[in-house]
């Protein structure tokens, strides 16, 4: 009998990381994929990206509606409550052998809590990482403590999960899912990508991806305005914006993007969702990812593309030499942009190595899911190494 692996996806970015793993589970002779779609995938405001999932050939077993039409901390907390109700019903109906979660979003916290109470063992991907500026930090570590099996992206993260009391025998270092996706995706050429986007690249190009810093009060608009003020001062550059996540204050950022794009129609464009293929293809042709997205740290280095990492949202994560850190103020961002285009930094980019590995994470995870012993009852002892 096949093992039923139930995966949850709530955002376009996380689905892009999961794509090849989900595909591999479908192709496995020993595994059966169950798929729950939730969060921004189901929202018209975020592009109804559940349609992309079905277009990719996946069957959606359950839809959990939980995203309220607001972006305040109160609405996010209420969304988590709705998610807990929805996931409880979904897991009761699907009765999976294991729940598969990637990352640290609040949607996944609801899913993990429902699985914990239902005694469904959890396999968690990308645990042990740090993002000190976001509420995701605490959510990620809490999911780690609720999980039975762990798939981490680097040795440093493996050690941190064990430090949290998890048994080393169930903590597996597989590498980054983003690197895996890059290695397996057939990327678009420049002309094909421009046609698909309806946008022409310029002499210089920046991919702008900025999300709210959820542990800083009322900072989203002010920080993003500082970034836009810096962009106003550079010339001969085209800007590709992606919309922020469904987080508190996300609409503030989205509105500011709309205003900037409308006043710079020939050099700036906004996408609610580029999709997995177009996003990774775009990374080939831009000079840098600018903002505070994890993709600037986890995926961009594989392309030897620069990253300007603004503020504290990703503070604590492993970083390649292609990453330039700067505070969220205009002058510092301009200094980082000047460094990005300096001859010395461009030479340094050619030597970039991605700290998240070289791929094959999906194959490693599938092999473990096929063969690992599953508990009848997911009881755990706190692991304490011998001195």
What is the spatial order of strands in the main beta sheet? 3-2-1-4-5-6-7
The CATH class of the largest domain is identified as Alpha Beta
Give the averaged pLDDT, no decimals. 92
Largest sheet at a glance? 7 strands, parallel
Number of strands: 13
Radius of gyration: 20 Å
- Low-confidence residue ranges: none
Relevant CATH superfamily of the largest domain: Glycogen Phosphorylase B
- Report the CATH architecture of the largest domain: 3-Layer(aba) Sandwich
N-end to C-end Cα span: 42 Å
Number of domains: 2
Task: State the CATH topology of the largest domain.
Answer: Rossmann fold
Shape type: globular
Helix content: 40-55%
Reading the helices and strands in chain order gives EHEHEHEHEHEHEHHEHEHEHEHEEHHH
Query: How many helices?
Result: 15
How large is the share of residues in beta strands? 15-25%
**What is the structural class?**
alpha/beta
At a glance:
The chain has 387 residues and is α/β, with parallel strands linked by helices.
If you had to describe this structure to a student in words, what would you say it looks like?
The protein is built from 15 helices and 13 strands. The chain is of the alpha/beta class. The protein folds into 2 domains: 184 residues, Glycogen Phosphorylase B (Rossmann fold, 3-Layer(aba) Sandwich), CATH 3.40.50.2000; 160 residues, Rossmann fold (3-Layer(aba) Sandwich), CATH 3.40.50.2000. The strands form 2 sheets. Strands 3-2-1-4-5-6-7 form a 7-stranded parallel β-sheet, with helices on both faces. Helix 6 links the parallel strand 6 and strand 7. Helix 1 crosses helix 7, helix 4 packs parallel to helix 5 and helix 9 crosses helix 13. The radius of gyration is 20 Å and the shape is globular.
